[in-house]
Amino acid sequence: MNGISTISCIVQDVIPESQGLRIEWADEEVSFFDYRWLAENAPELRTHQRLRGHQAPQTLRPRYIHLHPNNVLEMGWNGLSHTTCFSTVWLRQHGSPMRELQLI
User: Fold this and answer.
1) What pLDDT shows up at residue 49?
2) How far apart are CA 42 and CA 39, in angstroms?
């Protein structure tokens, strides 16, 4: 898993916030994901299909968020026709740790 342990990819909690999604991991780390970034970087979208800022609504928010037992986070979006799915491994590899965001 590219240096990521199994325990580090277990989600303890998913917390929707005003600008993005906060994920609390089993190893007590916390990651933050901006909603627009998630919608624009969905792993299932091919490069030529990727959303660009002008295609996504200004106030992009999830319509629903569901964590499946197979460690996949599914999100439906207000204003977008597609649903995105993220493996917890992918999220852990691409997340911004909250401690780094607090230093900015």
Assistant:
1) 47
2) 6
